[in-house]
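Lecture notes, continued. The same structure-token format from the folding unit now serves as the input rather than the output. Read the line below as a description of shape only.
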């Protein structure tokens, strides 16, 4: 499912117009990204937790050139699903 399909599904199931649903979903996604990129955790009960995960600097090897490279410390967004979400997915 892509974002446009999600917008249409939510509009259909709630009876709210597509334009309003699009504005709400885009605002929710923007706030989610802002929260995580500011170093905070977003917890949505029954869905999961979005948080920035920290990785230390490390030494790795470039296999093409067989050279040692340094990967700088960095953060990446991570998602940990809630137990109820995991349980529903196991039934697929």
């Amino acid at each position: 499912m892509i974002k446009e399909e999600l917008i249409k599904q939510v509009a259909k199931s709630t009876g709210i117009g597509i334009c309003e649903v699009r504005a709400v979903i885009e605002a929710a996604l923007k706030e989610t990204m802002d929260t995580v990129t500011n170093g905070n955790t977003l917890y949505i009960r029954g869905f999961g937790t979005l948080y920035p995960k920290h990785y230390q600097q490390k030494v790795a090897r470039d296999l093409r050139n067989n050279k040692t490279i340094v990967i700088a410390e960095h953060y990446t967004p991570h998602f940990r699903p809630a137990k109820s979400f995991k349980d529903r997915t196991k039934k697929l």
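Point for the exam: The CA atoms of residues 57 and 73 lie 4 Å apart.
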